[in-house]
Every structure is written in structure tokens, then in C-alpha cells.
Amino acid sequence: MATSESRRRTYRLVMLALVIALLATIITATVIGAAGMSVGEAFRALAGLLRDGIDAVGDFPDWAPRLLLDLRLPRIALALIVGAALSTAGASFQGIFRNPLAEPYLLGVSAGAALGATVAIVWKPLSALGIYALPLLAFAGAVGAAFVVYRVATIGGRTTTASLLLAGVAVGSTLTAITSFLMVATERDLHTVVVWLMGGLSTASRTKVLVTLPVVVAGFVYMMLMARRMNLLLMGEERARELGIDSRRTRRNLMIVASLTTAAAVSFSGLIGFIGLMVPHIMRLVVGPDHRRLLPAAALFGALLLLVADTVARTVMAPAEIPVGIITAVAGGPFFLYLLRARKGI
């Protein structure tokens, strides 16, 4: 009883700390940047925007409220959404596969999104769709890849973890090869493709936030509703069936929802690695394996981590910008090696 109460107290403290840190980071990311205004002017512009709206005037540049509303705030919101999406999807994949090395791109989502985005960039007739050609094709490619992987891995009406992993590797490798061929064949668009593959939030807008948010929220709500079942899956499929859980159906539905959530996120952000791998594992060490606590903690920490990474990416070399995927890879690479050594005991 004391242990249970201690865990609840720890969870509340962790969530409070994450909320405070997230709010502080949001304010920091709002007021710093490469624009020609001081931090004080940015604070006053933000206060004016909250008080008077876009027509706010005061001791700050007259363009400052528009900069905050159209550029910085949408970018911050998209970072929060994408970070939370990748983290919760990663937590779900790690739970249903019972493997801390699982991540959101496991079913070929990243390779499919990369191929879709590359096709949108190099095939000029698609420019008729406007600025949403790329995210639409990236989303379609991500969902299509996950569907193909699942169908290929389903043999005789059964889908095993091993077959999913093998199918994911095979389909992902094939799609990556096609993407590489398109990059070589259309050299003039090579830079654009590479920048997208590195991941970034520089094209964030209010419309993109409004499109992505409902998908990610719906996915998170479903995962929370299935949290107890994911906890039972951690005990093994046989035990889960004994307790009345259809493990195959539960796993399939969670994979679909997690893949859709990931696809919605990467379609607007590009391929941002390691967030979905690092965050769930770290939060599992802090709050425990119970998905009823793990998922909310992972969502907050993932949002915080990606926002910090994006703020660094757009300010450390201002006015130039580093793709945020590079920042997450620099942090995630060493962590992955640590996790691999801990997992293998080498």
C-alpha cells in the first residue's frame, strides 16, 4: 500500500514538473529567435497579443504580433503535437511488442512517408495540389507502407511479432531503395528531398496544426482507452487471453492507430528520429510500465523534448537553421547505444 502511494506521489510530482517545464519552454521558444527584436520586446508583444489580439500596439515592432501569431506560435504548437504523437506511438509499439527497442517507424511508416514526400517533390504535375501535395503524399505513403507490412506479415490469418519485424525491414528497405533512386534520378530536387528527410518544422502553419491535432488527439484518446489492455499484454498473450483479452485484435487495432498517429505527425514534420524511442523508455524508468501513467507522461515529455530541440535548431546558428532531426539524432544516438548495451548486457 505504501509502495502504491509512493508511486502515485512520484507520478504526480513528475507530471507537475513536466507541465512547469513545458510552460517555461513554450514561453522561452515564443520570445527568442532570429527576428530583429529583443527578448523584452518579444515579451511585450506577446502580452499585447494576448490582451488586444493582432492589432496590439506598444513598445515593440508593429510586425511583432504577426510574427508571433503566424510563425512562432504555430511552430511551437506543431512541435508539441508531433513530439506527443511520436512519443505515445512509440510507447504503444513498445508495449504491444514488449520490446523497449521498438519505435513508431517499425512498420515502414518512415520509408513510406519518405517515398511519398519524394514523389511529391520530384513529380511536378502534383504541384497542382499546392503546398499540401507533400504532406498528402507523405501521409498516403506512410499509411500505405504500414498496410502492406501488415498484410505481408499476416500468414494464414495470424500475424506474429517476428513476421511483422521482418516484413517491416523488407518493405522499408524496398521503399528506401526507390526513394534513393528518385533522388539520384532528379538531382535538381536533391536538396529539397534531403532537407525534408532530415525533419523540420519551418513550414508550420495554423492550418497544419488544425489538420494534425484532431488525428493525434483521437489516437491518444484511443491509446488511453486501451491502456489497461496494453498492461495485460505485457503479461504475455496466453495470460491476456485467460483474462478475456483478444490479444491479436488488440495488437492489430493499436498498431493501426499508432501508425496513423505517426503518419499524421511526420507528414508535416518530416522524419524526426529517436523521439519515439527515447521518450517512452525514459518515462518508463521514471513512472513505471503502467500505460495509464506512461502514455500521459510520454506525451508531455515528448512534446517538451521536441520543442527544446526545435528551439535549439532555429536559434543556435541563427539566421541559419539546423534540421531538427539532426538535433534529436545527436541526442538519440548515444542514448540508443546505451539502451542497446543495457538490453543485451554487453
Across the major sheet, the strand order is: 1-2
Distance between the termini: 36 Å
Mean pLDDT: 86
CATH topology: ABC transporter involved in vitamin B12 uptake, BtuC
User: What is the count of distinct domains?
Assistant: 1
Low-confidence stretches: none
Radius of gyration: 21 Å
Fraction in helix: over 70%
Order of secondary-structure elements: HHHHHEEHHHHHHHHH
Number of helices: 14
Descriptive terms for the model:
346 residues, mainly alpha, ABC transporter involved in vitamin B12 uptake, BtuC, two-stranded antiparallel ribbon, 1% strand, globular
Characterization of this structure:
The chain has about 350 residues and is an all-alpha fold. It has one domain: Orthogonal Bundle (ABC transporter involved in vitamin B12 uptake, BtuC), CATH 1.10.3470.10. Helix content is about 75%, strand content about 0%. The chain contains 14 helices and two strands. The protein has helices spanning about 1-30, 40-50, 65-95, 110-120, 135-155, 160-185, 190-200, 205-225, 225-235, 235-240, 245-270, 275-285, 290-315, 325-345; strands at about 155, 160. Strands 1-2 form a two-stranded antiparallel ribbon. β1 (about 155) and β2 form a beta hairpin. α4 packs antiparallel against α7. The longest helix is centred in the N-terminal third of the chain and has 34 residues, at about 65-95. The radius of gyration is 21 Å and the shape is globular. The two termini are about 35 Å apart. The model has no long low-confidence stretch (mean pLDDT about 85).
